[in-house]
Amino acid sequence: MTDALQNTETTRGATERVFVVVPSYNHARFVEKCLRSILAQTLPPSKLLVIDDGSNDDSPKLAERVLKDCVFPCDLVVRPNRGLAATLNEGLKLSVESCSTYFAYLGSDDVWLPSFLENRVATLARRPAAVLAYGHAVSIDEAGTITDCSRDWAAYVDGDARQMLMTTLAPLSPTVVYRRDAIERHGWNENARLEDYELYLRLSGEGEFAFDPQVLSAWRVHGKNASLDFAMMMNEKLAAQARIGIGLGFTQQQLRKFQSLARFRTAQEYMRRNDKRIALRLMIGNLRGIQSLAEAMRMAAGLLAPRKLLQWRKARRQARAIQRYGSAKI
Q1: 114-153 pLDDT, tens digit each
Q2: Separation between Cα atoms, residue 106 and residue 108, nearest integer Å
Q3: Domain ranges in the chain with CATH number 3.90.550.10
Q4: Cβ pair 184, 131 in contact under 8 A
């Protein structure tokens, strides 16, 4: 079922046209906040397409209600479930008809700050060699309370992103705006469960990643995030590296080291969650993936630390994120 909600198009130059897709699935608690963050953009999209991917909650009704307030062209598509990658590919295909220069998507549980599109589009306009622009984000919980900020842990790079991506560090999806013609050549792998990571790898072989250090997005972390399935995340990253790594110019020896690092980084995630037995097993088998003595010492300290100390560190990181961002809720 398709419900078209057409409105008067905002006048803008062709170079500023950005097509926005919201893949929505069972996020009735969050979808209104997500959509209103798009409606509040200082640079409105040339088109907003919401695709409800077979939700069995009230997400479609809530989306339809919010889109009635939209002052730029928008569509709502409600159909059976096909998965995130297929939904994004559907949106990408429809974006070609809009003659948009840029493409962005926002998960229906995430949020953009008002100047997100304006700043990311301006970055790409200044960087013709860049295939995407990205930046930092705060993490928020189900209530919208800030819990973390990527500034505290992500050593993002500007320019050639191949090495960074192979160490498993990748942009958070709500921080990214793509140059549409670049992703049109690839799209999302519908057989992969970690679709963004593989696309990032492929795009890194085509052009630069333009990094903007501003915090302009909020990534919501809750019980249904796929990123909390550490084993799945690791296996998908290993598979994507194996498929694409050699084509990016890395040797088999380098690829093996990157894969050891991917397993070690997963061990770190288990350690932070206090699953120390799994963390220790992964660490012991992948010591050659450790990039520095300091990283090894931090891992050892985490394995030895009591649960209360890990909780204290987490709370301290949250307080620092709130202090930097200047607000406890989004």
Answers
A1: 999 999 999 999 999 999 999 999 999 999 999 889 998 8
A2: 6
A3: 1-108
A4: no
